[in-house]
Design brief:
The structure is a homodimer. Chain A is α/β, with parallel strands linked by helices and about 350 residues long. Chain A is built from ten helices and twelve strands. Helix content of chain A is about 35%, strand content about 15%. A seven-stranded mixed beta sheet of chain A has the order 2-8-7-6-5-3-4, sandwiched between helices. A three-stranded antiparallel beta sheet of chain A has the order 9-10-12. In chain A, strand 9 (about 285) and strand 10 (about 290-295) form a beta hairpin. The longest helix of chain A has 24 residues, at about 255-280.
C-alpha cells in the first residue's frame, strides 16, 4: 500500500574488494600494475583547477576525436562513458527492448545478467563448452541481442575473429555487443567489422590497458546510427557524464603510444612467465589473451587457496559459482608481485 | 524487421550551450563565477596520479562521510552520483515503478519529463499559478511520485517549507523528491524532514554553490532504507561511478566552509544588486532564491534580447516554450559581468 511497492528491487553486482593499505598485493580486479602514462600525470598536474567551475563539454569532443583518430574511424562512430560499465549499461538500455531473450555465455562478465535484471530484459545464458570455449553454433537461434566478451572474463579465453563474424552475420535481427575490455593484451579486435555490420558494437575501456581505472573512461565504436541512439539515451539520462579531468587524462593517455605499448609488452611477458610458474606448481592454466590468468589446481580447493592467499595479504578473485568454483582468477601484476604470489602458493601447496 | 525495432527511441534533453573562448560572458548554465575553493585546487594538484591505475572506492566512503558530517546525518543516509542528474535519474529508475502518474510542475527543470520518457514512467505536469508559484492543493491526488525543485528552476522561486511538508505528508503512497540544486543560495531546505518522512529524498549538487560543475558530483539524502535501494540500483548499473579525483575534490570542497560562505554571500549580494539594475531597465524580475534571475520585459521580446546579447557575446538562456517564451534566465555572474550585461541590455532597449 505504501511507496515501497513501486521500488525497483534488484540484486546488485558485487565488485571485487578494494582493500586499502600499501602492504597488500592486489591481484583481484584486473588493474594494471604500472602507473598511467607520464603524459597523463602531466595533464592532471597541469589541469587548470579554476575551469572546474564550468560544465564539461557534454559531447566530450576532444576525447571522442582522440579515440576516433587512434582507431582510424570517424568521431560519429565513437561514444564515451564513465567506464565501460556505463557504456555497456547504456547499450543494454538502448538496444535490448525486444521480447526475445538476449544471449550471453553462462560463464562471462557477471554484470550482463545484472543489467538485464535491472532493465527487465529477457535473457538466456548459453553454456560454454567443456574447455570454456564459445561455440558459435550454440547461438543459432533468434535473439533480442547478443553479448560476447572477447577475450572472455574470467577465463581469459579468446574467440577467433571468424567465429565472432559468424555470430554477427547470422543475427541481423539484433544488436551484437563485443566487449573488448581486455583485447589490448592479445586479442583480435572485431573493430574492423563495424562498417560491414551495422548491428555490431565494440566496447573498450581505459581501465585495464591504459591504467586509468580510477578516472572512469570507457567507449563504444559502431555504425553512426547506433552511436546516435546511444547518445540520445545518454542525453536523456545525464548530459555531462565525462568530467573535465577524465577528458584531459584520456586524451593524454592516447597521445603516449610508446608508453602504452611498453606496458602491454611487459604485462604480456609477465603473463607468459607466470603461466609457466603456476604450471610448475601443478596448476592447470587456461591460455590467456588478457591481463589475468584463470587457473585450477587438481589437489587443492580454490576456495582454500583464495583464503590462504588473503591471509598472506595477496588478493585474487574467487567465485562460489557453478563450473568455476574450483578456479581462481589472478590478475597479472609485476614480475616481483608474481614471484611473491608463486612463493605463497608454494607454501600453500606444501 | 531488423534490430531497429528494439531500439529505445527518445527525445533527449538539450543542455545549454558550452561555447569556448575567453572573451564571452557565460550566464547561461548557472555556473558559479568564482573558482572552486583553493583547498580543492590543492587536492587536485596533490592528487597522486599513480593511484589512478586503481579502481576508486565503489562506496566513495570518504566523500559520503564528509557530506554526512557536513549535514549532521549518518553515512547510511547519503548517496552520491555523477552530478545531481545522475542522482535524479537513478531516483526515477529506482522509485517510480507504479501505474499512477508522477507529478511535477509544468514549468520546472526540463529533465524531469525526459527521465520519465526514458524509463517509460507515466507522468502528469501540474501548472504553476499565474505568479509561477506551486500550489500544494493542486497535488492532492494519488501519485506514483512527486518531484519538486525548490527553489524552482528556471523561475528561482521558493516554496515555503510548510508547503513542502504539506505535500510530503499527504503522499505516504509515493516517494517525494525535493531537488535542492540551488538551495544554498537562499532556500529553506527540506533536509530536516528526512527522519520524519521515510518517503522523502532531498537532492543536492556540487555544481552550482561549490563551483565544481566540471568535476560531476551530486548527492541524495534520505531515510537509510531508500538510500539502500538507490545503492542497489547503482551497483546494478556501474559500481564505480565516482572517480578518485571527484572523491578527493569533493572532500576538499566541504572542508573549506569559510570560502564556501564567502562565495555564496558575494553571489547573493550581486543577485540583489542585479535585480535592481534589471528593474531600472524596465524588466519584471521574479524574486530569486537561487543564483539566477528570471526576467521579462514588457516592451521587448525575450527572443530578440537573447539574440542581441549573443551578438555581444553574452550568453543567457531562453526557451521557446509555452508560458515562459517571453522570459530570460540569467545566471548571476560577478558584479563586473552583471554591469556589462546591464550595459548591453541598455543598448538593446535604447
Amino acid at each position: 500500500m505504501g511507496f515501497e511497492k513501486n521500488i525497483r528491487r534488484v540484486v546488485p553486482y558485487v565488485p571485487g574488494e578494494q582493500p586499502s593499505g600499501t602492504d597488500i598485493i592486489k591481484l583481484n580486479t584486473n588493474e594494471n600494475p604500472y602507473p598511467p602514462s607520464p603524459k597523463t600525470a602531466e595533464a592532471i598536474r597541469n589541469f587548470a583547477s579554476d575551469e572546474n567551475r564550468l560544465y564539461p563539454d557534454p559531447a566530450a569532443s576532444e576525447l571522442v576525436s582522440a579515440i576516433a583518430s587512434e582507431h582510424g574511424i570517424r568521431e560519429s562512430e565513437v561514444f564515451v562513458g564513465v567506464g565501460s560499465d556505463d557504456v555497456l549499461g547504456m547499450c543494454f538500455l538502448t538496444f535490448f527492448n525486444g521480447q526475445l531473450p538476449v544471449l550471453f555465455a553462462d560463464i562471462t562478465y557477471s554484470f550482463y545478467d545484472v543489467w538485464a535484471e535491472l532493465f527487465r530484459i529477457p535473457y538466456e545464458t548459453v553454456p560454454l563448452d567443456d574447455t570454456f570455449a564459445i561455440r558459435p553454433e550454440d547461438y543459432e537461434k533468434p535473439a533480442g541481442g547478443i553479448v560476447i566478451a572477447n577475450p572472455n572474463a574470467p577465463t581469459g579465453k579468446l574467440l577467433p575473429a571468424e567465429d565472432i563474424e559468424k555470430i554477427i552475420s547470422r543475427h541481423p535481427e539484433c544488436v551484437v555487443i563485443v566487449d573488448e575490455a581486455y583485447v589490448d593484451f592479445g586479442g583480435e579486435s572485431a573493430l574492423g567489422l563495424i562498417r560491414r555490420y551495422n548491428n555490431l558494437i565494440v566496447v573498450r575501456t581505459f581501465s585495464k590497458s591504459r591504467s586509468l581505472a580510477g578516472v572512469r573512461i570507457g567507449y563504444a565504436m559502431a555504425d553512426e546510427a547506433l552511436i546516435r541512439c546511444l547518445n540520445d539515451v545518454k542525453y536523456s539520462y545525464n548530459s555531462y557524464t565525462m568530467s573535465r579531468l577524465a577528458i584531459k587524462a584520456g586524451v593524454a593517455s592516447i597521445s603516449d603510444k610508446e608508453y602504452f605499448r611498453e606496458c602491454l609488452d611487459k604485462i604480456i611477458a609477465t603473463r607468459e612467465r607466470s603461466t609457466v610458474l603456476l604450471e610448475k606448481l601443478g596448476f592447470q592454466v587456461i591460455p590467456s589473451a588478457s591481463n589475468f590468468l584463470f587457473a585450477t589446481h587438481p589437489e587443492k580447493q580454490a576456495e582454500d587457496i583464495f583464503n590462504y592467499l588473503k591471509s598472506r595479504k595477496i588478493y585474487v578473485r574467487w567465485w562460489n559459482k557453478p563450473r568455476i568454483r574450483n578456479y581462481l582468477r589472478i590478475t597479472v601484476g609485476t614480475d616481483e608481485q608474481m614471484n611473491l604470489l608463486a612463493g605463497a602458493l608454494a607454501d600453500c601447496l606444501a
